[in-house]
Every structure is written in C-alpha cells, then in structure tokens.
Specification:
- The chain has about 325 residues and is α/β, with parallel strands linked by helices.
- The protein is built from 12 helices and 10 strands.
- It has helices spanning about 1-30, 30-45, 50-65, 70-85, 90-105, 135-145, 160-175, 185-200, 220-235, 255-265, 285-290, 310-320; strands at about 50, 85-90, 120-125, 150-155, 180, 205-210, 240-245, 270-275, 295-300, 305-310.
- It has an 8-stranded mixed β-sheet with strand order 5-4-6-3-7-8-9-10, with helices on both faces.
- It is elongated and about 70 Å long.
- The two termini are about 25 Å apart.
- The mean pLDDT is about 85.
C-alpha cells in the first residue's frame, strides 16, 4: 500500500515538473506577444483609474494584439462591471484578461484522439505554404510512435522535392515508413497508394502531408478536394482527422485561412506553430472565439518536445505575462 502511494506521489511530482517545464518553454516562446500585451497594460493602468478613456485604450491594445474584437469586448465588460471609476492595478487587468482567455480557450482544448477502430486512423494535414506542416508531421510521428502506435507517413506535397526529402528524413529519424512518389506526381494517386499500403500493413496511423496552398487559389483548393475524395474511395469514413496547421506569424490572415480551408476540407482540428517567432500569438484566441474548432497542440520551437498538447490555462497565463500556472490543468 505504501509503495503504491509512493509511486503515485512520485508520478504526480513528475507531472508537476513536466508542467512547469512546458510552462517555462511556452512563456519563452510567447515572450514577444507577452511583451506587447503586458507592457501595454502596464502603460495604460499604472496609477490610473478605470474610466472610459482607459477602457478604450485597452480595447485598442487587445485588438491590435490580434486577440479579436469579441475577446476585447468580454474583457472590457468584466472590468467595467467590477472596477469602473476605481484605481486598478495592471496585475488585476492581466488576471482578468487571462481568465477571459481561459474561458474562450477551454472549450476548444481537445487532444488528438486516435481510434483503435480505424486501421489506419487517417490524419490529413493541410495549410498554406510555410506553416510548418511537414515538420509538425515528423514531430507527431515521433510522439505517436513513443505511445506505442505503428505510424506511416505519406509525402503528399508532390510539388516540392524538398518537402518529400524532408519527410523521408523524418521517417528515417523516427523509424517509420514513408510512402513517396516523384516530384510533380499526382497527389491524389499518392494518397491512394498510401491508403492501400497502410491498410494492407495494418497501421494504426497514417499521416498524409499535402502541398502548401494559398487559400485564394481555387485550382489548388480543388486539388485538395480531389485528394479527400480519393481517400474516401478507400475508406468512406476517412480522413478521420483533418488538421489545419496555422503559422502564428500570419496574424489576422489565419482567420481567413481557417474559414476557407474549413469549407473545402471540413477541418476537425488546429495546430498552431511558430508562436516563438511572432508577437501575434493572440490570434489563436481570436480563432477559437470565432470558429470554435478544437485546438490539439501548439508549437514553440524546433525540438520534438516543443510541440505540446494545448493547455488553455497555461497558454492564457503565459500570454499575458503571469508568473505562475495557477488554474492550469
């Protein structure tokens, strides 16, 4: 009994340390976004009352930080109902903001679930050029394999030799098979071959890369729709997940990407990358508030461990510059 209790306590401590370690990496990655928001709040509210002028300045700050009009309205409503015409501390504003961000993000924070009923569970990765789809697939393959799942990759970005080679390198590094064809080959045919092989070999997961495509290029979006149709000829229920990879540095354009890809590909989840390279990390909040699509993970660096399951409380606290992870699950 005492041994079981000790093991449970040790595991709990290990999870707590892991959470703290991730929170520190997240804070570091979000530092550019945090500096904009936290410094702005400090400039507005240091030794100052909460009045109509300061609320207007706060609204402008939140909107220009890509948090979105809806988020700004929610924060202003909470603050004005509690502290109007009273002196307010910047820390109070940060905590109120973090609370509203948590409330917006909590419903969309959903880990990616692989169903054992699917053989394979097909995950289609989509997004515009340069979002980091191929690298994200490699990281996901590593994490899924570490969970004991058999994984296959499909190099469906047939337009770029570099993308095919990059996925093959990830396959060798992780130790998973990669289905690839010639540069300029038919992407839908490659998807068919990958489905056929993954089904024949009884794979748990098939991750299919796709060419980066601008959401305003109708012919490229039509090709993506064709890839999906071909996949469904092999398995009517597939793809079981279609994940949109968004680059945080694109800011407000991420909203347009989400809307357009959602119409063509029936997006089931989002992964946001490059939060460490942007001062526009707030766009994830705006996306969540507008679309309500599940957010599976966020990326804050190049290492495998820098792609992490999405924790809304940790994200909210890190984004506004709070020094703790109180409330983080």
């Amino acid at each position: 009994m005492f041994k079981r209790k000790a093991k449970a306590e040790a595991k709990a401590e290990e999870r707590a340390e892991e959470k703290k370690g991730w929170f520190q990496r997240l804070k570091s990655g979000l530092s550019r976004s945090t500096n904009t928001i936290s410094t702005g709040i400090g400039d507005i509210f240091t030794k100052r009352k909460l009045d109509a002028t300061s609320l207007e300045e706060l609204e402008d700050l939140l909107i220009t930080s890509d948090l979105g009009v809806g988020t700004a309205a929610r924060v202003l409503k909470v603050l004005s109902s509690q502290r109007f015409e009273k002196e307010v501390d910047p820390e109070e504003v940060r905590r109120a903001l973090a609370g509203e961000i948590r409330d917006i993000l909590a419903p969309v924070a959903k880990p990616l679930e692989i169903s054992p009923a699917n053989k394979p569970h097909v995950i289609l990765m989509v997004g515009v050029n340069g979002t980091g789809k191929t690298t994200t697939i490699g990281k996901m393959a590593r994490q899924l394999k570490d969970q004991g799942k058999s994984v296959m990759l499909a190099a469906g970005d047939t337009f770029r030799a570099a993308a095919i080679e990059q996925l093959q390198i990830w396959g060798e590094r992780v130790g998973v098979p990669v289905v690839a064809g010639k540069v300029g080959g038919d992407a839908s045919g490659l998807a068919w071959d990958a489905m056929d092989r993954a089904m024949g070999e009884g794979m748990d997961v098939l991750l299919i890369d796709t060419a980066g495509r601008l959401q305003n290029r109708s012919e490229l979006m039509d090709e993506l729709a064709k890839v999906i149709r071909v996949i469904r000829k092999k398995d009517a229920s597939a793809p079981h997940d279609t994940i949109l990879v968004l680059d945080a540095t694109t800011g407000q354009n991420a909203l347009n990407q989400t809307e357009v890809f959602g119409k063509i590909a029936e997006i089931t989840g989002i992964i946001m990358t490059k939060l460490d390279g942007s001062a526009r990390g707030g766009i994830l909040v705006a996306c969540a508030e507008k679309f309500g699509i599940p957010v599976h993970a966020v990326g804050v660096g190049e290492a495998v461990e820098d792609l992490h399951s999405f924790d809304p409380a940790a994200f909210a606290n890190a984004l506004v510059g709070l020094e703790d992870i109180e409330g983080a699950e």
